[in-house]
Write a structure and sequence with these properties.
single chain; 621 residues; alpha+beta; 8-stranded antiparallel beta sheet; 7-stranded mixed beta sheet; 27 strands
């Protein structure tokens, strides 16, 4: 029998080959070789940019240029369950935070990893492909913060517009068939899914048939952005359909350096780029420049272009164009990855090995048969630990299994928990010891709504220099209390009859720094958070959208940069407040709505109505 590590690596290497012949040709060789101007330039082909550029190019009279720094996704990206193998690779920007005096003590370099997709499709090409829209309160809160027209009832249609739903929810009225983005149910052969489900039920949580339905608190199986078992990124969903369009160009490997303005410094007229050839040039936009470079990239380009906090830009010696709080309002979902279960007791090593091997084979067989799977990660729970009388969750629990003796079975030869969460080798060794005895099942504790906010700023005026990021997690005591309440829930969960019957054991991690505290005490858990708390790859809010009169906002409710004409931002940075779940679906929704707003602003509806009227008149005449 093959060792488990060899089998796992074989599964990685046997991922399907990709054929990109059905996608638009790469326009980058010609990017600086002609003087063409485009109606719209969209910078960034991630979740927002791919969706937006595709929708804008539906209008045949408009010319659209989409720019992307990365290249097409590698074959490995097609298999969602292998997502972690893409982290710390060439398709990851590999951003990190600045060191924190209170946190990240068990992470390498005392910094928090912030993975971002550096490829077509952006993070939708490297994430766990979970499709969660969020809760009604998320969007109703946006409207209360000055984002007129962004309440849940107003934006729900844009979730539906994208969807080609192939799931099993009986609440089909919440979904739509026929859109570009395929949404499928995740499946799993993992017996722990049912065991943990029984445990959640014992804890009083209701089973939620559709996590995108109206019920907010409970446990259930996630839907996913997958098609026939393979990843359905926004690149696959939205860009593949643009190939026949003569009005659409897509340039890969192009770095956006700054936004270019007219002589008044009040109107965007293009972007300066660095082509793959090494040549710099300015590309003109006659209608709008739209930044969709993400929660880090978009604020960085705005600041490099002179739009940002006046004091900071002066320090960077960048001429001021508009004094706006760009880079402020950093939000992410803090998470703790140290809650781990094993089933190693009362079982022989050969039995553990055989069962783990079979589960790997059964899981991968689903993918080979066109069924989407993320293994046990399909199961998640949302809980309200505050007892505040609302049905709005403050904690998300995501499950994850790492197979027996596979912590080091990675493409880059680094520890899995380093690749995923940036653990130092010393800290990771605790988890390796457990994994060398049996499979490891994690409950990742995620804070859905953080009251603490951070910020980012430029490190220099060099566009190729990464910015400085200060997440400022747990600066509000309520955030610590919510996480602690979440831990207490998991401790009680570990004592349910379902988990005891199956033999799952909750394992305390023996952090050297925390040995002076009693295991399980409030002090122990505060110390544990100081070691392993990190962001959960969900940054947003750094170009806050809201009322024009609000001094904390960068964008108005139509996603236009305040005080500047013809410049918008359409990505997670525009969120007034980070949604309480994985934000990919929300960003796609935002791009769908932005496309309609742009068409309204440029009177496409009016023009098309006039065209249809004239056509009928002359045909009738």
């Amino acid at each position: 029998m093959l060792p488990l590590t060899i089998l796992w690596l074989w599964l990685v290497k046997s991922s399907i080959c990709l054929d990109y012949s059905d996608y638009p040709a790469d326009y980058s060789p010609d990017i600086c070789e002609n003087s063409n101007a485009y109606d719209f330039i969209v910078a960034g082909a991630g979740s927002g940019g791919s969706t937006l550029a595709s929708r804008l190019s539906e209008e045949a009279s408009w010319t659209v240029l989409l720019l992307e720094k990365g290249q097409d996704p590698p074959p490995l990206s097609e298999t969602p369950i292998l997502w972690a193998s893409l982290l710390k690779s060439d398709v990851d920007y590999k951003y990190v935070s600045q060191p924190d005096e209170f946190l990240f003590k068990g992470l390498e370099g005392n910094v928090s990893s912030i993975p971002r997709g550096k490829l077509s499709g952006g993070c939708s090409s490297v994430n766990v492909a979970v499709y969660l829209r969020g809760h009604r309160k998320d969007y109703d809160t946006w409207e209360k913060l000055g984002c007129d027209g962004w309440n849940y009832d107003s934006i729900k249609k844009y979730f539906l517009k994208s969807e080609d739903y192939r799931g099993y929810s009986p609440e089909i009225y919440e979904h739509h068939k026929g859109g570009p983005l395929t949404v499928s149910a995740y499946e799993s052969p993992d017996p722990a899914v049912e065991v943990f489900s029984e445990g959640f039920a014992e804890m009083g949580l209701p089973r939620v048939t559709d996590l995108n339905g109206p019920v907010s608190v409970g446990y259930g199986s996630a839907d996913s952005t997958t098609r026939d078992g393979k990843r359905c990124s926004t690149y696959k969903a939205f860009i593949s359909i643009t190939k026949p369009r003569k009005n659409f160009h897509f340039a890969r490997g192009v770095t956006v350096l700054r936004v270019v303005f007219d002589e008044t410094l009040k109107r965007a007229i293009g972007v300066e780029v660095l082509a793959p050839s090494g040549k710099k040039c300015v590309i003109r936009a006659t209608k709008e420049v739209i930044l969709s470079l993400g929660a880090i990239g978009s604020p960085q380009i705005l600041m490099l272009s002179g739009i940002g906090p006046k004091k900071h830009l002066k320090k960077m010696k960048i001429p001021l164009v508009a004094n706006l709080p760009v880079g402020r309002n950093w939000q992410d979902h803090p998470c703790y990855v140290g809650l781990v279960f094993t089933d190693r007791k009362n079982r022989l090593p050969d039995q553990i090995k055989a069962e783990s091997l079979q589960l790997i084979k059964d899981t991968y067989a689903l993918y080979q048969n066109g069924i989407a799977t993320m293994g046990m990660t399909k199961l998640m729970a949302f809980i309200n630990t505050k007892n505040d009388g609302t049905s709005y969750p403050d904690i998300q629990l995501m499950t994850m299994r790492i197979s027996y003796q596979t912590m080091w079975s990675t493409v880059n030869k680094r520890h899995k928990l380093y690749n995923m969460f940036g653990l130092s080798e010393e800290t990771a060794s605790f988890f390796t010891d457990l994994n060398n005895q049996s499979d490891s099942i994690f409950i990742i504790l995620i804070l859905s709504e953080s009251k603490s906010t951070g910020y980012m700023e430029l490190n220099s005026a060099d566009p190729l220099d990464y910015p400085k990021i200060y997440p400022n997690f747990l600066r509000h005591e309520d955030d610590f209390q919510s996480l602690l309440n979440g831990v207490r829930f998991v401790e009680k969960f570990a004592q349910t009859e379902a988990l005891k019957k199956y033999g799952f054991e909750f394992e305390f991690i023996d952090y050297q720094a925390c040995r002076k505290f009693e295991k399980g005490s409030d002090e122990y858990w505060r110390c544990a958070f100081e070691q392993l708390l990190s962001g959960f790859y969900h940054p947003g809010g750094t170009n806050k959208m809201g009322a024009e009169s609000d001094p904390t906002t960068v964008l108005n409710p139509r996603m236009k940069v305040k005080n500047i004409e013809n410049l918008r931002v359409v990505d997670a940075s525009a969120m007034a407040k980070l949604v309480s779940v994985n934000p990919n679906a929300a960003v796609i929704m935002m791009a769908e709505k932005a496309a309609d707003m742009i068409k309204e602003d440029h009177c496409v509806v009016c023009i098309n109505f006039i065209r249809r009227t004239l056509r009928r008149f002359f045909i009738g005449f």
